[in-house]
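Whether sequence alone determines local backbone shape is best considered at the level of individual chains. Part of our work consisted of pairing the sequence of a single chain with a tokenised description of its backbone. This step matters because it turns folding into a mapping between discrete strings. For completeness, the protein is quoted in full, as a sequence line and a line of structure tokens:

_____
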Amino acid sequence: MSYKTIVGLEIHVELMTKTKIFCNCANEFGGEANSHCCPVCLGLPGAIPRLNKRVLEYAIKAGIAFNSDISKFIKMDRKNYFYADLVKGYQTSQDDTPICSGGYIELELDEGVKKIGLNRIHIEEDTGKSVHTEDETLLDYNRAGVPLIEIVTKPEINSGEEARVFLERLKATLEYIEVSDCKMEEGSLRCDVNVNVVDRETGQKTNITEIKNLNSFRSVARAIDYEVDRHIDLLKKGQNTEKETRRWDEVNGETVVMREKGDASDYRYALEGDIPPFTLDDAFIEEIRKSMPELPHEKKARFMDQYDLNDYDAGVLTATRDLANFYEETVKYIDDAKLVSNWIMGDVLRGLKDEDLEIDSLKFDAKALADLLTLVKEDKINNNTAKKVLREMFETGKDPNSIVKERGLIQISDEGALEGIVEEVLAENEQSIIDYKNGKDRALGFLVGQVMKKTRGKANPQLVNKLILEKINNM
């Protein structure tokens, strides 16, 4: 039997405005509990909300970036439900008139380019936060009223891996247009998954399962794959899934039932009377459109053209705005785009992965990396030495020139200085000379290695290779 996976995503993104969506309270992560809230945040009697203009701008920027239609008619609604951290008893959101409709995000997959459609992007306020202890549940309303956009996809994602790639592309775009920092660990990007499976032969579908508590893109992919297997297993037994909300248990690698899933009608949407509907000017939207920065796919195309990079390299270097900026800043200081690309994609990204860091957390800047690569390009140090210097830069943030000077690492490129060491190595390794002459090319590498060992890695390997060959050929 053959089955098709159907996945839709609901992504909540906190916007990087200075103040909250309906009041002047600070919109910032952290702070003492309940120190960033006011009568509007708490829904106290007589408190009147005022819509933050910047929230509209950021939502429209997202809509433009994701190819959506922008609505000039703005209406806010009350989404009624009871939950402990929803102090007002309703959430101010948008129901039937989202600020952005439609749109899509293109994914570059192994099998080609695929468009994932969007249903909508709407603005709303965040709720408070429940803090659970062994004995009680405490409520922190600092997050209440933080501005959100909710991005809802069409059910066109067909695997956990596709969902991961989609989220990475979405996150990169939001960072490029500077509407959110997308830090999942701080809750500024949260994703809920809706998944079900259809039997291609019988057409039978499982009931949709919603999955929450997903704190990484890897968790999203794992949770989807787990649920798909669970749905298929039930279908094979002639059973079906319940229409329910489940949470992802990262430790055990499984989903766990939370509650029965409700319908939209359960929310009893009603017009938000404290914020009358209004219409945006065409000029307001057009001004935002003209101010849009370069998007990831545009930057990738420019990198390929301007720096003569291939599709893969340009894709890696523009995967995040910070990485792309670091690359371009480095190239400003050393006119060798390919050399910079090779080092960033190789040792720099490897070092970031080993240290579990992001590019903006490096202890050194683009100028320091350029200085290191200049030393390599000018044959003052070789690649192996440069790698060691880079590791120290990761650890200490020291300037590469200082490290090289302090440790005496300047490369030996003087033929006269190396000639005696080469002759000494050849005299000590007659068998390797014989092996090389008999066609064993690895013997040459061994001889070069011995010279490098005697010079503590400071010899110019290309020059050593040349000297050894000259001397062997003259024997």
About this structure: The chain has 16 helices and 17 strands. The radius of gyration is 29 Å.
